Amino acid sequence: MHRVVITGMGAVTPLGHSADATWTALREGRSAIGPITALPRETLRFGIAAEVRDFDPLAHFDEKKLILLDRVSQFALVAAREAIKQAGIDFARDALGENTAVVIGTGIGGENTNDEASRRLYAENNPRLHPLTIVRLMANAPTCQVSIEHGLRGPSFATVSACASANHAIAQAFLLVRSGVADAAVTGGTEACLTLGAVRAWEAMRVLADDTCRPFSKQRRGLVLGEGAAVFVLETLEHAQVRGATILAEIAGVGMSADAGDIVFPAEKGAATAMQRALADGKLAPDDVDYVNAHGTGTAANDPTETRAIRRAFGAHADALAVSSTKSMHGHALGAAGAIELVATIGALRDGIVPPTANFVDPDPECDLDYVPNTAREKAVRAALSNSFAFGGLNAVLALRRAP
Fold first, then answer.
1. What is the CATH number of the domain that holds 360?
2. Is there a catalytic annotation at residue 17?
């Protein structure tokens, strides 16, 4: 059993086109939520989202390559390039690519391709679809494209578990490296879900906010959709130390559970169980943890349920925790959410700064923890949890320690 560390991270998010830009915006409490520009707002009920703006695919891919890539894969590839560059690994030179895993989560997959195909088929009565439709929209396309571009031939697959997809992906990659099944891993999550069909479907569920995302606040009115990707390089502590790599953080353990209850409504016990399992797997006592990056969607059901789950998992130590939801700034990127939030969690561990819960107004009596309202806080963070809880009651929690 190996200790597993993170030596590279990359991101393309509504807050910036790199991990550093994203973290800077998070610590400054800047929100990327605003009017949707990529869709006709007159067709939408509310028309707000957290978009990745000014992303030019041709700045990253030639036209021959681009024809193979849905936006969801474009985000993943750009984030993976940044992560691998930061890690300083040459997979070909080090022969590490032969057994490096690729595990990337997505909740929807190539939704832009799917939306375009549906428009052509049903709106235009055009029976001819693009011949590469399937390879663009399949949920494993981002994993495949990262594997191909970097020559990574280890265990590779996608995880698709709605809003827990990225944390499930990172957990599986961690387990592969810890057990020695893979020598290293490239992992994370990606989502490009701001299409007319997807947004209208979320509107139909009546869980979207009409103003902004206000997690844990009494005035919260729902979630705000986002998009983007974050990708990480995992390797064993021994390997990282031998090659003199800069270690960003250590993954101490993971915890996963299923509510086995309602398809939509979250369960306190299931969420608490995932947190407790992450603590146990990481050999962490509750009072070792200083920060929880919450799932914190801003919906009526999630926030008080997660609050009770944190209290259940941490007991009396819950009152000493700093808890924040960065979805208040980058929106809810569904299958990429946990990966983007891992950027925030690593930043808190590395820099001793807890990102805030933005847009916070008045406290909700049912949400009675310290949510770091509106302004980042200097705080030494020894260990942290990052929570992801999905529709269907699928829960995945990452436990991290400060870099050794």
1. 3.40.47.10
2. no
